[in-house]
């Protein structure tokens, strides 16, 4: 990819490959279609912490879990100022790194990564007139050695506040913090019977994963 001579990114120097799962709509007659996307996919490179190291050549990682069967996040989300040890385990931090932001530009904005499960259609129809924004934060702490891992994840970790915070022991090397945003126009299905789901059939959002 680095040797490519073209890109679809607005930043012409960006030769990376990005992927996010599409949001689908399942009609009651059994047909499925992709929910229209609003705009392109936004990729943020946040530089949290000190002595941040650029991604080395050959580095790979994914975030999320396509095979996840359950989540333990609380509803509503525990305020970050009240997070204790249970909210800062690797599993809990990974679950908090996924967001489904209900967009209502005429009302109060939801914070990023505050809703970790895909809302049902009734909630979306009633509260999200401007669509649904899928969000994912990537780990930004690295073991400083491995370019990849068998699961593409165990060589990296989240800081203790997901986006920012302290890196865990053995993962003290800071790398740029990637944050993905994709907005889906759920309003086109407001008067249609059915339900939303991710492209792997997940209706909860717990299987959301990106690379």
UniProtKB/TrEMBL annotation:
Q: Which residues form the DUF1996 domain?
A: 3-209
Record-linked InterPro entries: DUF1996 (IPR018535)
UniProt protein name: DUF1996 domain-containing protein
Species whose genome carries this gene: Clathrospora elynae
